[in-house]
From TrEMBL:
SUPFAM superfamilies: Chemotaxis receptor methyltransferase CheR, N-terminal domain (SSF47757), S-adenosyl-L-methionine-dependent methyltransferases (SSF53335). It is an enzyme of class 2 (transferase). This is protein-glutamate O-methyltransferase. GO terms for molecular function: protein-glutamate O-methyltransferase activity. Residues 1-258 form the CheR-type methyltransferase domain. GO terms for biological process: methylation.
Length: 270
């Protein structure tokens, strides 16, 4: 690879021709994904891969697939869910209507985990809870609305559901898939939303926005946190991913509730 061999033409092609906003994401992440496709196509340089990409539509699909950040699961990072459980008990005790936003919800397992948690805990009044779940990806939302998940060995849904103790009433098991029960789906509404360019929402008691910020470059993180802040009620809660951080310029806007589980509270205006 010569020093003039750069990833830039590939990223520009993906942004302009394939309509995937590479400029939102951090370069280390993009480089890892492009490099993995380069290995798969035996391309020895970015330039070589770029010429493959331009002429091969199947490879364009493969790259888009590799770039979509869709790793998710039910009850991902269980200790975080213990914290969310405590907050949902408190919120439903104090308020007759509790609105939660699962932002960047991927294929729906995160908002369905919220709903299952609410249904499974006697100390949480699930009838008070409504959940809005959003993502930028229409494909992810289609799976989410369907509520059916393939149970592959590498993606063991039963162990993900261990958090619930006895999950059987919330899922129906088929041969190689799991279907989420109607009672769990009922409080969840799905909608497409872009966290960087989309408008803020309002009136949310909790925003769960996990495992997207690690892929986003610093410049685009601040608009995401502004969107979350403006969507929260006074004293509303924000939960971000375990390895994610609030940009320095936004830290004073949130108070830490549980540093390890990355749970914060927005004290409100002024
Ligand atoms: C790794 S998944 C995280 C899913 C879930 N929150 C979790 O923690 O398991 C990241 C999700 O962010 C979505 N995403 C990427 N950019 C986005 C944006 N600008 N606005 C909204 N969602 C976005 C992707 O489509 C993907 O579904």
């Amino acid at each position: 690879m010569s020093t003039s061999d750069t990833i830039q033409p590939i990223l520009e092609f993906v942004e302009e021709e394939l309509s995937f906003a590479t400029s939102y994401y951090n370069e280390r992440y993009l480089d890892r994904r492009v490099s993995s496709r380069m290995r798969r196509t035996d391309s020895g340089s970015y330039a070589e891969y770029y010429s493959v990409l331009k002429r091969d539509e199947a490879e364009q699909e493969e790259l888009l697939d590799a770039l979509s950040i869709n790793v998710t699961g039910f009850f991902r990072n269980p200790s975080v869910w213990e914290g969310i459980q405590t907050l949902l008990r408190k919120l439903t005790d104090e308020k007759s209507s509790v609105r939660i936003w699962s932002a960047a919800c991927a294929d729906g397992r995160e908002p369905y985990s919220l709903s299952m948690l609410a249904h499974s805990d006697r100390e949480i009044d699930e009838s008070r809870i409504s959940i809005l779940a959003t993502d930028i990806s229409e494909d992810a939302l289609e799976t989410a609305r369907g509520g059916v998940y393939q149970d592959l060995q590498t993606d063991d849904i039963s162990s993900q559901l261990d958090f619930l103790g006895r999950p059987t009433q919330y899922i129906t098991r088929r041969d190689d898939s799991v279907e989420v029960a109607e009672t769990v789906r009922e409080p969840v509404e799905f909608e497409r939303h872009d966290l960087i360019n989309g408008r803020s929402k309002s009136g949310f008691d909790m925003v769960v926005c996990r495992n997207i910020l690690i892929y986003i470059n610093d410049e685009h993180k601040t608009p995401i946190f502004e969107t979350i802040r403006d969507s929260l009620v006074e004293d509303g809660y924000m939960v971000i991913g375990k390895s994610e951080t609030i940009p320095i310029g936004m830290r004073q806007e949130f108070e830490s509730v549980n540093a390890g589980d990355k749970t914060y509270q927005y004290p409100g205006g002024e």
